[in-house]
Amino acid sequence: METSHSASSQTEAYVIGIDYGSDSVRAVLVNAHTGQEIAQAVHPYARWKEQRYCNATKNQFRQHPLDHIEGLEATVRRVAQHVPAAQIVGLAVDTTGSTPGPVDEHGVALALKPGFEDNPNAMFVLWKDHTALPEAAEINHKARTWGGPDYTQFEGGIYSSEWFWAKIAHVVREDEAVAKAAYSWMEHCDWLTLLLTGGELNTFKRSRCAAGHKAMWHESWGGLPSEEFLTLLEPKLGGLRERLFEETYTADEVAGHLSEEWAQRLGLTTNTVVAVGSFDAHAGAVAGEIEAYSMVKVMGTSTCDIVVAPMNEVGDKLVPGICGQVDGSVIPGMLGLEAGQSAVGDLLAWFRQVIEWPLRALLPQSSVLTPDQQAALREELSDKMMAELNKAAAAVNPDESQVLALDWVNGRRTPDANQALKGAIMNLTMGTSAPQIFRALVESICYGSKQIVERFEQEGIPIKQVIGLGGVAKKSGFMMQTLADVLNRPIKVAESDQAPALGAAIYAAVAAGIHPDVVSAQKAMGNGFAETYTPNPARVADYQRRYEQYQAFGQYVEQATQLQAGEVAETELVDQA
């Protein structure tokens, strides 16, 4: 898919932002001075679309690097053709995270090497892969008991199975061949940036954003966790630390220039600057014009909540239960704080799959229509069904439905990460309708967001405004109005349809020297806001009451989950004895 606008002849500098999401990659060509979007292109991952290397029952979600390479070429070539190549002065990549993958000594992803082409453990472990639950639990336990620094303290105090070290430990324990062949490991944003520049792995500039939020990197203890701690966690991690990195770099810095190979493959020149990589939510927050004590909610398959604050005002304060606080991870010179929810778009997509199962299973096959036409017809009917469901759910009076849901179908990211938790629905009756259930799911997302806002403010980080961006924020007025009512705050929605890609382009413009810093680039290149949702006073009290019920329901389910986990562990010990 591609869209474009005519380029201004008065402007001679352009940048490209490349955003790798969970399902597809998109590139935007942007005027480096004004932020005007000239062209965009989107490419879905072919292998991922077929879920070739995934197993949802095991929470295993892996992506093949060929999907990423094919998408890179397809999208960048399509947007780059709209202006002379010499005028494209910079580009930058953002990705989901933590999405690490194993590489050889030259930075080549193992899945691109003979013998590993179809091995899921040799691929990138997508952010929502939760196969590393046991390893995350070990990291949390050992960080508190080993006698040295608690390396989780700047990660919110709880390390998640979604993150760098837990995933690596899980893979090397499970797969001896990958453990031996992996010279090092790279976050997806770092690997793509290295691929584009053709630099040396051992001197490559790694992302501060990725390392600080997901790999327990912090200047106070000399970078990454110590060799002693890592080998205590898993002996197979021995020696890996020295093959990783010590220094990290913010996303406005120059990682290198396009290599000759990739300049040719993309239709660009070797003069094009490549900025240091970043994560999608952090880049999106920049495009969302984040400023001190704003919360930018990047709402897609999951939600990431990004806050920035002046370093001198936060001081030594640690916010427990979030996804890290890192100097310069969003805007250099400011503290970046991250939180979020593990399933937002994914939660609604799950319900869509449930209710459309008969449609996909029983819709008559036609001898007249081709398989692609049949698939398109099913998709069209499904889209119409969801549109009607949204309309009906929005019309439900919260007072007339007692259905209550928990948004934990993919675990809980924050506050207080616990990926072992499961979603739940209560108060179903013979009179419960699909719109009431759907509304309860939407409300649960909003209640989960309210818990995050409250955690920041309880810990002395005020939230002065809320900004929404991403597919859910742009497409679902029902969701955004409910969120405004639940939070009892206005919510501004960013104008850009591709905010993370625009944020990456802003970083690229600074790295290329068009703007002196990120804040200046934001002011020049920001697209502003599409609309503002204001709270409905008549609903605020009702939602506060239901929020308190949500909290009580969550406590009950979490206690039951912990009890069940304890019983399972006890049974395993008896069996071993």
List low-confidence stretches. 4-10, 568-574
CATH class of the largest domain: Alpha Beta
What is the number of helices?
A: 20
Distance between the termini: 59 Å
Q: In the CATH classification, which architecture of the largest domain applies?
A: 2-Layer Sandwich
Helicity, in percent?
Answer: 40-55%
CATH topology description of the largest domain: Nucleotidyltransferase, domain 5
Q: What share of residues are in beta strands?
A: 15-25%
Principal-axis shape:
globular
Compute the number of strand runs: 21
Give an overview of the whole structure:
Strands 1, 2, 3, 4, 6, 10, 11 and 12 form an eight-stranded mixed sheet that branches. Helix 10 (280-287) crosses helix 18. Helix content is 41%, strand content 17%. It has two domains: 2-288 and 496-531, Nucleotidyltransferase, domain 5, CATH 3.30.420; 345-494 and 536-567, Nucleotidyltransferase, domain 5 (2-Layer Sandwich). It is an alpha+beta fold.
